[in-house]
Each structure stands twice: as C-alpha cells, then as structure tokens.
Design goal:
about 110 residues; mainly beta; Lipocalin; four-stranded antiparallel sheet; 1 helix; 8 strands; about 5% helix
C-alpha cells in the first residue's frame, strides 16, 4: 500500500508498506531503502539513502511515525540534515490518493 508520495529533489519519493510491518522507499521508482517486518516495531522508523550529484554526495533521510488503527502518518524529510518537508496523512488521504502506475514497457519490433 502506498503510504506517502512527496517530491524530493525534483523526483517522486514514495513510501510503500504493509500492516505486517515491511516498508520500501522509492526515489524516482528506484528502491533506496527497505525496512523489514519486526516484532519490536513501535511505529517510528527512519529511512536513509544517499544520492550523487557529480562529485557531491547528498544525504537524504525520511523519518516517519506510523499508526495503523486509526491510520495516521507523520513524516519529516531531511536533506543533508536540513528539514525540507514535513506533514501528516490520515485514512481520508489514503482513500483519495491515485495509485502509482508502473512504467509501460515499449515494444520493440
């Protein structure tokens, strides 16, 4: 299930997860961070990844606090330790979201 879809450095940053506890974070449809299900999960998680811009390395971090019942998600996005985005989502936001469509494959003749 898509939990969050925001912009990060001009590309889509999408978080998918399940009630079982796993989460995968995608940047521009490429997986950049994964958290496996854990019996000790308390709702707080943090995804970190690095991007390269020429010789420069950009550190990105998405901190979330997730509750499933009732559904609420608080998030903060940091780039090089500077907060650049924050917000929250609830079950109404999930109901209104548009599903992400997989890139269509071009047929070669």
């Amino acid at each position: 299930m898509e939990l969050l879809n925001i912009q990060c450095l001009g590309k889509s940053l999408r978080l998918e997860g399940s009630m079982a506890g796993w989460q995968i974070l995608y940047w521009d449809n490429t997986p950049v961070s994964r958290i496996d299900a854990s019996a000790n999960y308390n709702g707080a998680s943090e995804h970190s990844f690095e991007l390269k811009a020429g010789e420069q390395i950009i550190t990105c971090r998405l901190a979330i606090d997730l509750n499933w019942q009732p559904f609420t998600l608080q998030h903060q996005l940091f780039i090089d330790d500077h907060a650049v985005s924050d917000g929250s989502r609830n079950s109404k936001d999930i109901e209104r979201q548009q599903p992400v469509e997989a890139r269509s494959r071009q047929k070669t003749v």
